[in-house]
Amino acid sequence: MGVKNQKQPTYDENFKKSIANLYQNGKSQSELHREYGVSAAAISRWVRKYSEVKIDEDGTVMTANQIKELQKRVAMLEEENQILKKAAAIFMRHSNKD
Questions:
Q1: Is 43 exposed, middle or buried (0-12, 13-18, 19+ CB in 10 A)?
Q2: Residue 5 falls within a domain, yes or no?
Q3: C-alpha distances in Å from residue 18, one per residue of 15, 21, 42
Q4: What is the pLDDT at residue 98?
Q5: Distance of CA 24 to the CA centre of its chain
Q6: Which domain holds residue 75?
Q7: What is the Cα–Cα distance from 53 to 51, expressed in whole angstroms?
Q8: Which residues lie closer than 8 Å to 57 by C-beta, 6 or more apart?
């Protein structure tokens, strides 16, 4: 018996965001699976990626994806800062020798 080569369905970003929003508003993964035919694994991924997180009292809302991008940016800036500190220390040593 051969296994049929089944192509997984492709969903657009708006659909994924809608599913994550439905989950955030109280629908269970099993309900979403039954209603839309999406696997539980896909729903879990979309919820992690698109769920919104309120970060302070002023109503600022970000998705988990946006937070992840900010974390990458902070790490990059911290690394650049360390490089600049080392370069400044080298230049200071050389300028003090004059």
A1: buried
A2: no
A3: 5, 5, 13
A4: 61
A5: 16
A6: 13-96
A7: 7
A8: none
